[in-house]
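Sequence only, no structure available. Ideas?
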Amino acid sequence: MPNYYHPTKKMTRALFTELGFTEPDPTAADRIGGHVFTRHHTDGRHQVLYVFHWSNFRIAEAEGILPCRLSIRVRLDGPADDETAIATAPHGEHTFISYGGSSDWDAVRGVVTNTYMPILDAPPSDGDEALRILLALDGELSV
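Reply:
I predicted one. Tokens follow.
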């Protein structure tokens, strides 16, 4: 039995492209261990997400935690050029969603859509405050 679960690259891309993001360089996922998605917001901001997966069923069982995490590093107003956005994406503010495995992927999609997207869609001052609140919950978002 595998000791990990990672949603496929196709599943991850589908989730974020359906929400209006693009992946400027899909090969970056192989180089840096995660996906970089960008979005030019209607108010002029260039939003950057660095998304990666972690899972380990043995460690989770030993520590009493959910075995999978969708980690998202957020930059609400990142660099506009794709090369710099990709290079600096892993330095964004970090949050993650904990989940049990493949059967929870639809619930993870719901958390991204209903929790993260309102923050990313908010006006800059509201979005900054909402992101601060979200970061305070780090590790408590689970499905």
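DSSP finds six helices and four strands in the chain.
Hope that gets you unstuck.
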